[in-house]
Write a structure and sequence with these properties.
Blueprint (H helix, E strand, L loop, with lengths): L13 H9 L5 E5 L18 E5 L2 E6 L9 H22 L6 E4 L2 H15 L3 E5 L5 H6 L5 H17 L2 E4 L2 H9 L7 E3 L6 H5 L15 E6 L9 H12 L4 E6 L5 H10 L5 E4 L4 H9 L3 E5 L13 H7 L4 E4 L3 H9 L2 E3 L5 H12 L3 H19 L1 H20 L2
Parallel strand pairs: 1-3, 4-5, 5-6, 6-7, 8-9, 8-11, 9-10, 11-12, 12-13
Antiparallel strand pairs: 2-3
Helix pairs in contact: 2-3, 3-5, 8-13, 11-14, 14-15
Organism: Roseateles oligotrophus
Protein name: Glycosyltransferase family 4 protein
Pfam family, one: Glycos_transf_1
Length: about 400
C-alpha cells in the first residue's frame, strides 16, 4: 500500500515488487493514479473509480485521488486525504484479503489506513519508515507549528502501536523508536538499496565540459537544498584553489539552492567547481563512473546523524571511494565497509584536507577502497539481500496470523 508507485519516482516501487515476485510472493499494489511530482495525471491515465493493471506479473490497483502537488497547502491536504479515503474503502470492502499488508510511509496517510484495515480485517501490517516524523518536518522547516508537530507525533505513536512490525533504514531510527516506547523486538533495520539496474547499465554521455583526467574529480550527485549545506563545499573549493590543488568538485543535480550556489561560486571566482543540471537516474551512472571520489554532505542536525542518505548505497554500488561528510550512522557504515574517508559536516577545512588526501593516493589504493565498498554493498545492502529480509518478516507474520 503506497500513494506513489511507478511510473512516479519512488524508491520502494516496481523494483521492490518485482523482486518479491521473483522470490515467490504474490503481490498486489494498492496505489493512486500517477501525478507526482508535477501534480498532473500522467499521459495514458485518467482518474476513474478503479483501474487494474498487470505489470511484470504484479497486480497494480489504482484508486482515485485528487491530483495536486502545488504550493497550496489546502490542495495538498486534499490530495493526501482523497487517496487515504479511497485506499481505505478499497482495503475494507473490495480487496481480496491478503496475508500481510506492507505499508510504505507516510504515517498520516498510508500508516493510518493500513492500521484501520488491520483492525477491521485482521491482516498483519509491516510499516516501513523512510522519514522519521515529526523530526523531518521540523528539521526541514516544512512544518513550524508546535501544535501541528505534536498532532503528528500523536498520530505516529498511534500507528506504531497498532502495526505488527516496523522496518527502518538505519540503527539510529531504531534507537529513536525505542526511546519513544516501541519495543526493540518490533523493529528491524533493513538498509535501503540502490537502483542497481540504472547504475549497472548507465545511458547517456559525459558533457564536453566535464573535467578531464588531469583533474581529480569529486562528484556530488543529488538535491541541493538547505539540508545539504553545500556552502561548505564551495568554501573548501576556495581553500583548495588557493593551494593550487588539482581537485575539482562536480555538482550534479537541482534544488532550491542551485542558483545561489552558482552565484556564490562566481563571486569567489572558483575555477575548480562546475555545476551540471539534473539528469534522469538512468544517466547518473555515467557521471559517477567518471568520478574519482563521490561526496555525501548534509548539514549538522541530530536527525541527520541517524539518517543514511540513499546516495550512499548508490556510491558504494558503483565501486567508488566515498568522502562522507555526515556524522552518525552514515559515517559508521562507511567506516565499517572501509570504503572512504569520514569528515565533520560543514567543516570546509576538513573537506579540503580529505580531498587533498584522496588526490595524493595511488590509483590502486583508490580502486581497492572502492572495491571494498562494492563488496560490502553486494553482501549486505543489495536489493536481493534486502528483499529477502523483508520476505522473512512477511512469511513469519503470515504464518502467525494463519495459526490464530
Amino acid at each position: 500500500m503506497t500513494q506513489w508507485f511507478d511510473p512516479e519516482p519512488t524508491f520502494k516501487g516496481l523494483v521492490f515488487a518485482r523482486e518479491l515476485v521473483r522470490q515467490g510472493f504474490d503481490v498486489e499494489v494498492v496505489t493512486g493514479f500517477p501525478n507526482y511530482p508535477g501534480g498532473k495525471i500522467y499521459p495514458g491515465y485518467r482518474v476513474s473509480m478503479l483501474r487494474r493493471e498487470i505489470v511484470d506479473g504484479i497486480q497494480v490497483t489504482r484508486v482515485p485521488l485528487y491530483p495536486n502537488h502545488g504550493p497550496s497547502a489546502l490542495k495538498r491536504v486534499v490530495n493526501y486525504v482523497s487517496f487515504s479515503f479511497s485506499a481505505l474503502l478499497y482495503g475494507l470492502f473490495m480487496a481480496k484479503r491478503p496475508d500481510v499488508i506492507y505499508a510504505y510511509h507516510p504515517p498520516l496517510t498510508v500508516g493510518v489506513v493500513a492500521s484501520l484495515v488491520r483492525f477491521f480485517r485482521g491482516v498483519p501490517v509491516v510499516y516501513d519508515i523512510q522519514d522519521m516524523w515529526p523530526d523531518t518536518l521540523r528539521s526541514t522547516g516544512m512544518v513550524s507549528s508546535a501544535r501541528a508537530l505534536n498532532v503528528v507525533q500523536l498520530v505516529c505513536k498511534w500507528v506504531y502501536r497498532r502495526v505488527d512490525h516496523i522496518v527502518v533504514l538505519s540503527p539510529g531510527f531504531k534507537t529513536l523508536l525505542e526511546q519513544r516506547g516501541v519495543s526493540s523486538s518490533k523493529v528491524d533495520v533493513i538498509y535501503n538499496w540502490a537502483d542497481e539496474t540504472a547504475l549497472s547499465a548507465p545511458k547517456g554521455n559525459i558533457p564536453s565540459n566535464f573535467p578531464g583526467n588531469e583533474r581529480f574529480r569529486i562528484v556530488f550527485a543529488g538535491n541541493m537544498g538547505r539540508a545539504q549545506a553545500l556552502d561548505s563545499v564551495l568554501d573548501a573549493a576556495a581553500l583548495l584553489q588557493a593551494r593550487q590543488s588539482r581537485v575539482t568538485f562536480v555538482m550534479l543535480g537541482g534544488g532550491v539552492d542551485v542558483e545561489r550556489l552558482e552565484f556564490k561560486a562566481k563571486e569567489l571566482s572558483l575555477r575548480n567547481i562546475v555545476f551540471f543540471p539534473p539528469v534522469p537516474m538512468a544517466e547518473v551512472g555515467v557521471f559517477l563512473e567518471a568520478s574519482d571520489v563521490l561526496l555525501v554532505h548534509l548539514r549538522k542536525d541530530p536527525l541527520f546523524e541517524v539518517t543514511i542518505p540513499s546516495k550512499t548505497q548508490a556510491y558504494m554500488a558503483v565501486s567508488k571511494p566515498l568522502l562522507m561528510a555526515v556524522e552518525g550512522d552514515a559515517a559508521e557504515l562507511v567506516t565499517r565497509a572501509d570504503c572512504g574517508l569520514v569528515v565533520e559536516s560543514e567543516n570546509a577545512e576538513a573537506l579540503a584536507s580529505a580531498a587533498d588526501r584522496f588526490a595524493s593516493m595511488p590509483l590502486d589504493d583508490l580502486e581497492e577502497m572502492g572495491g571494498r565498498g562494492k563488496s560490502y554493498y553486494s553482501n549486505n545492502l543489495a536489493l536481493q539481500v534486502g528483499v529477502a529480509k523483508f520476505g522473512t518478516i512477511f512469511a513469519r507474520l503470515a504464518a502467525g496470523n494463519s495459526s490464530c
